[in-house]
Amino acid sequence: MECQELKLVTDKELIDKNLEKEEQTCNLVPAWSPRNPLENSIDCREKSIVENINADQDAIAKIQYLSSEHAKLDKYLDNQEQDESLRKYLVVGVHWVSLLTEHVLSHPFLVLRWQCQVYNASKCYHLHPFTLLPCIVHLHRRQGLTTLWKGMGSCLLVRGMSCAIDDVISKLSSWPKELDSRTTLKRFGQHVLLKSVSIALVLPFHTVSLVKTVQSGIASDKTGLFDVLREGGARIFSWRSPQNTRMLPTWALIGPSISIGITKYLFNLLIHGVSTRMMQRRMLENRCEKNPDNKLENQNAKTYAGLIAMLTTEVVFFPLETILHRLELQGTRTIIDNLDTGYSVVPVLTDYRGLFDCYRVTVISEGAAGLYKGFGAMILQFVAQVAIIKLAKWTADQIAAGILNRPTSRTVQPYNFDSLSCNKSSTTKSPSISSIDVELTSLGKYSLDE
């Protein structure tokens, strides 16, 4: 009997020890708590069940949240692809606006400038644009709106021929058509030689194009592009000057044209390179940490660098251009508009014997300012070009800003896995769902609120 009682006491002590261990594991109440051990065990088991259920629900919520964020990320990436293609179109658009402005929209100012340059007997030099405005109004009233667009087809034809000749010579002789930072001195010399040959071959057609551009619309017949090709080809093969005119032979114009053309081309390359580096350095200094429009900014920098190079080159070589145009037009019996009044027409009558003789006679009879006749037309040309390019850039910036300010999804906030309701979680939780380790940190590299 005593043995049985001793055994019961031993079993009871063992049960009490197990209950105390379970209480300490669950951290419900201290081991010395006076509560009933059975009640403590029931409370601990209920707590474990509740925690397991909550953990499973939290894991399900996290998985649903991750799926929704993945959908938002896919939508965001699609929008980014569309925005990138639109930015490419904006870059191409700004580039084409720049080309259109330089070669087409600036042609009326080119007509005014060339007419002022070749008229040696003019009283008004038009050194600033204000004196040209009344003449433009009078020309439009007398000859119509198309009077300043004459010769545009021939000018575009000459520029196209120059590019085509460069390409053909480059393919036949393997001379470089363009220069870069890796060009050797030998390749540079070959490139200069290519440009010299191109200028010499295009010179007769450029002379004919000059005549078609400056001649008055009411004192001459309209000509087509085939007339430019025919007359230019005839001047290529006529190396001697005609007996009954003062026209200079082609060989007498090749030397001045090549020397002035090559010097002007190299000076333009130098200014373009310097201005491009300055623009890029300024762009790097002013660039924000988040600048997704690098391509558009680079295109704007190239556009402005080209504009600065062209403006500087035209200003520096304006007197030489005046002399060369007078030599090319001499003896062609061209009648131009009188830009002193804008109402009448006048013939161009000169008798220069060469480049230096033209310079000497011009300075003596017209003064040093005579070399800058029509400078106001060039000012108008560049003001119009800058205004159009500024407008195109502003439009592109507004479109790009509209893209960047598009409403986006809210910022992804990583779920806090450690903030459970009870830090005393049981080790008996179900491993099927609650033990899933959801990784949201991979979304950290995507900023959905940009």
TrEMBL record:
It is found in: Mitochondrion outer membrane. This is FI08023p. One of its GO terms (cellular component) is organelle membrane. It is a multi-pass membrane protein. The gene is Slc25A46b. InterPro entries: MCP_dom_sf, MCP_transmembrane, SLC25A46. It holds the Pfam family Mito_carr. PANTHER family: MITOCHONDRIAL OUTER MEMBRANE PROTEIN SLC25A46 (PTHR21252:SF2), TB1 PROTEIN-RELATED (PTHR21252). Keywords: Membrane, Mitochondrion, Mitochondrion outer membrane, Repeat, Transmembrane, Transmembrane helix, Transport. Belongs to the mitochondrial carrier (TC 2.A.29) family. Solcar repeats lie at residues 297-399. GO terms for biological process: mitochondrial fission; mitochondrial membrane fission. It comes from Drosophila melanogaster. The keyword Magnesium does not apply. It comes from the Eukaryota. The keyword Transmembrane helix applies.
